[in-house]
Amino acid sequence: MKKIKISKTKHSSWKCGKLAKGCRLCVKGQKLVLYVTGICGKNCYFCPLSEKRKNKDLTWANEMLVKKKSDAITEARLCDAKGAGITGGDPLLRLKRTVSYIKTLKKTFGDDFHIHLYTPLENVTEKNLKILHKAGLDEIRFHPELRDQRLWDKIKIAGKLSWDVGVEIPVIPGDEKEIKNLIKTISTEIDFINLNELEISDTNRDAFRKKGFIQKNKVSYGVKGSEQLAKRILRYCSQIGLSAHYCTTTLKDKEQLGSRLKRRAKSIACGYDIITDEGLLYRGAIESSSDDLISLRKRLMRRYDIPKYLIGTDREQRRLLIASWILIEIADDVHSKYHELILSLVEEYPTCDLLKTDVRYI
To answer: Judging by DSSP bridges, how do beta strands 31-35 and 59-61 pair with one another?
Structure first.
């Protein structure tokens, strides 16, 4: 079997062979992340899902809580997504919902809108896979149990259909023997394997601590030892000719998320916004206890001769948004005339929740 060359990608990851199409779009921030449900029949100690998603039967499109399918379409458009990754929980536990989203996304954006899906093997059946394939799913990624081979044969079923089939697993220090055994057993049934750097989150931190896992350094959420093992597994995949990708926490947090934030920022930025190098929105904010933001906006526009495109309203957070350079210039006078207003310069995510990363009151 021909050995495949290992190379470092420009997205802070390593690969041998070709990246799966889902990965090629994901690393550029071009994928909508669609959490169909947080319900899952498993209880993996390493699961990084947050408390607000884990075991909750809710749907999220990136950071947006989806109440109707059009919300997911809106989020995909705002991010200029070229595809979607469907995950959970286990999407197969809500198969009807999952299929509906696949069909809606394909109908809205066309057949070239690439959709991949993640699922454990517990609810995989030939019938379910055929339903997903017929709906338009392009790529499926399985999460097998390393220490329980009883369900591994289900992966063979997926190979009967015309889509890309892969396996995606976290690289847990100490599991080298088990990972190699998995690869040896299923390598002829899959097109690729993705190796995810083991990641510490708020929900798995205690479990990791009990197992002796620690952060590899102060600036990464990756677990010490995961990367070294992943590179050994890459070499093994290279030797047997299996395409593999080692996906680092840096790729997820900086490359993938950062690129997606920049795409969304470009879609929603207004005249008063500055997009930072990280894809955040830098803007001035004027908080008011009054519900009549429109009147306040008009008064400030008249008094300070502010063009209307440089000041807007944010009813949800009861504030006006204004160009930072203008707010700095008028701050002293605003404080002297409108004592109840709170002025600040903020950096916040260009997501639907507008999560603030920095607030400086002036």
So the answer is: antiparallel
